[in-house]
């Protein structure tokens, strides 16, 4: 039987195309994409959403205070005797006729001895003394505070993801520095081998190059360990498998943004504390309801009328009022506590403003320091590069020793790594500044 291989070739082509597409997507994960994964996975943000949903349920519960409460009540009662009213004997006196015997009547039964009752009762609150009105306003501000805290949690998650992603970039850039150094040392090793054969250097000089290469390999192992740990951190933050980040090769550059025309007034923490202050204010106002009456409407309908007494109505409706004239100072104490809560909320707001003001100033100073360190590290790298070129030429022409050559290599390698670390420090300081100002969001991220 002839096999049609075209189908299998087509299927293989689709699979290969799909795998290449996946590799491209995996390798092109940007900072924003990784941050979006973190935000979708964050348990803290999920719990914040649940807290907001709980407040929504509390608001619904508060509004439902004005819905009628309907109940069906049933009871059976056995009395020791029927409730009745005796009627005195009736004596008829007719002039001119003999006195007739008195007429004795049976007692009038007001309530039978066995009573079976079933009724439907409804009650609806009409006025709660403004407790529901102010209470729901307090809940609205509480929900807004939770929403602002969500933005704070988002900012924290973004900052943590950025630092982790940038650490991966630092590791990759450092690995490139080591690769360049390894290529130069490989070239020097070949030159040293020829020089040794010609008797221009000693075996000891050649061993120094080998030691430098081994030290370089040790640094690579450390970087690989750090890379694995960083990928594990990204896995924990995003909930995605580590294989998704294995092919990432991010770069790291200086982060430039406006730091002068920015303050902390838009910080989510400040907005949240303002909402908390408003919530405590409305909570204090709601305690006034303890001095006001509660008004409600009610209705009742008997479903079984056979056992009703002569005094029991078959149905009734009305309006009731409950006014607590003296509640043992409970309302007064509630007001005192609410005032203290409001004072605490105001103190927390003032303290947060002072701390954020200090934090803003600190992060500005950190950014300025990081910028200076970048400039210094860049100048140091340029100087080290010139020194490396001079050391290479001197060593190749026999004017310099292998020790000087390797020392210049180490200096240049250190300068390159210090520049990468300085850029990482500047980016960390910038993220902290934007976090303090409330401007750290996914739109502010630049890859």
What this model shows, in words?
The structure is a single chain. This protein has eight helices and six strands. Helix 2 crosses helix 4 and helix 4 runs antiparallel to helix 8. It has a domain at 29-67 and 128-291 and 342-437: Outer membrane efflux proteins (OEP), CATH 1.20.1600.10. The chain has a four-stranded antiparallel beta sheet, with no helix packed on it. With 447 residues, the protein is an alpha+beta fold.
Key terms:
single chain, 447 residues, four-stranded antiparallel sheet, two-stranded antiparallel sheet, 11% strand, rod-shaped, disordered N terminus
In short:
The chain is α+β, with helices and mostly antiparallel strands and 447 residues long. The chain has eight helices and six strands. It has a four-stranded antiparallel β-sheet, with no helix packed on it. Strands 2-3 form a two-stranded antiparallel ribbon.
For the biggest β-sheet, the strand order reads 1-4-5-6
Question: How big is the Rg?
Answer: 43 Å
Q: Count the E strands.
A: 6
What is the CATH H-level superfamily of the domain at 29-67 and 128-291 and 342-437? Outer membrane efflux proteins (OEP)
Q: List low-pLDDT spans.
A: 1-26
Oligomer: single chain
Give the overall pLDDT as a whole number.
86
What name does the CATH topology of the domain at 29-67 and 128-291 and 342-437 carry? Outer membrane efflux proteins (OEP)
Overall 3D form: rod-shaped
């Amino acid at each position: 039987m002839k096999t049609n291989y075209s189908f299998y070739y087509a299927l293989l082509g689709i699979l290969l195309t799909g795998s290449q597409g996946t590799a491209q997507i995996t390798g092109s994960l940007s900072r924003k994409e990784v941050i979006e994964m973190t935000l979708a996975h964050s348990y803290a943000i999920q719990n914040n959403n649940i807290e907001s949903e709980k407040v929504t349920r509390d608001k619904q519960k508060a509004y439902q205070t004005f819905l009628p409460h309907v109940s069906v009540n049933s009871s059976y009662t056995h009395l020791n005797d029927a409730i009745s009213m005796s009627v005195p004997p009736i004596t008829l006196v007719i002039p001119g006729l003999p006195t007739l015997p008195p007429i004795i009547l049976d007692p009038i039964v007001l309530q039978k001895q066995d009573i079976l009752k079933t009724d439907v009762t409804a009650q609806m609150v009409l006025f709660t003394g403004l407790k529901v009105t102010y209470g729901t306003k307090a809940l609205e501000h509480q929900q807004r505070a939770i929403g602002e805290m969500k933005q704070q949690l988002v900012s924290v998650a973004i900052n943590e993801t950025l630092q982790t992603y940038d650490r991966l970039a630092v590791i990759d850039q450092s690995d490139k520095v080591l690769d360049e150094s390894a290529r130069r040392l490989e070239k020097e090793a070949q030159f040293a081998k020829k020089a040794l054969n010609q008797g221009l250097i000693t075996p000891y000089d050649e061993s120094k190059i080998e030691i430098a290469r081994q030290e370089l390999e040790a640094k690579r192992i450390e970087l690989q360990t750090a890379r694995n740990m960083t990928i594990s951190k990204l896995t924990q933050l995003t909930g995605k498998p580590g294989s998704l980040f294995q092919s990432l090769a991010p770069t790291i550059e200086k982060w430039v943004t406006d730091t002068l025309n920015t303050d902390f007034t838009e910080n989510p923490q400040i907005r949240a504390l303002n909402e908390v202050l408003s919530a405590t204010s409305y909570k204090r106002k709601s305690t006034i309801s303890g001095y006001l009456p509660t008004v409600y409407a009610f209705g009742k309908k008997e479903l079984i009328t056979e056992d009703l007494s002569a005094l029991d109505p078959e149905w009734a409706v009305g309006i009731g009022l409950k006014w607590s004239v003296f509640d043992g100072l409970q309302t007064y104490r509630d007001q005192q506590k609410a005032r203290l809560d409001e004072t605490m909320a105001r103190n927390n707001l003032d303290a947060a403003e002072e701390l954020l003001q200090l934090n803003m100033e600190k992060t500005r100073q950190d950014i300025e320091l990081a910028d200076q360190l970048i400039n210094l590290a860049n100048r140091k790298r340029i100087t080290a590069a010139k020194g490396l070129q001079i050391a290479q030429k001197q060593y190749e022409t026999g004017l310099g020793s292998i020790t000087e050559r390797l020392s210049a290599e180490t200096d240049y390698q250190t300068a390159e790594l210090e520049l990468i670390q300085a850029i990482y420090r500047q980016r960390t300081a910038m993220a902290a500044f934007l976090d303090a100002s409330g401007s750290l969001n996914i739109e502010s991220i630049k890859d």
